Amino acid sequence: MVPEWMETIFMHQLGDEYWFNTKDILAHSCSSFGVNKRNDKPSLTAQNMDIPEFYHGFQTVIKISEPNSDKQTMVLTIPGHIGITGMNNKSVSINCNTLMQLDYSKTGLPVSFVVRAVLDKNTQKEALNFINEIPHASGQNYIIGGSEKVYSLECSANKVVEFRPFENAMFTYHTNHPMSNTDFNTSYLAQLEKNDKTIEEGLYECQRIKSFQKRFSENTTNIRIDAIKDVLRSRDNDGNDVVSNNSTYASVIYELSKAPKFIIAPGKPHEQAYIEIDLD
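and the corresponding structure tokens:
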């Protein structure tokens, strides 16, 4: 018999799985970005982590130093939760965007456990193999960072599909709409039919993705960290669907160099300054 307190703690880890299993198909509003290494400029991954406002005010970063190892990990989380995004000093990082439209499975691995498992890897290749091999509990896009390249993987119960804005793009971005994976769940398809919408139209048009598209295109040749901060701070339209919004719990930037940097704005980045937390 599992003690009730253990069940409660386990349930606390299942934020995305709660949304899927209650059929709240419009939940979440995270925005993520990644750029490959360019000449002497290290690869970068970044994210505005948008979660319900009752979590706000408790921004927490866990620094993990493994015994008998030089491995260190930095994890953004909420109290009592094992982690929602992070990086390690082996230049492996993970950023997450919920894709409520995709199919899910009650026998797959929950998102928070995927996060911690990826951060346990010593190389990006190990992390990518893991993402492609495991069963996924929830529809999710993972931007997996490495020292040379970044990958954006749309994951569902039955598929893992890479998204890149255009062929050979040196960068990628994501919000909460599938752009490559078509393994939709039945609830989403039913909502489309109910609202007389096609798959191409979707239930609504994402405004946040436009903030990335207008700043980063096929003509972009140089991406500095200030440009990434600019898009993460952006409030480009008159509605609520802006990159830095009321649900933004924290904004993180991971510099995946030989001496990786963990950079965080502990709140909405248009209101909070970015600071660096040392791994050492």
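(Above: one complete record from the training split.) The chain has a mean pLDDT of 92.
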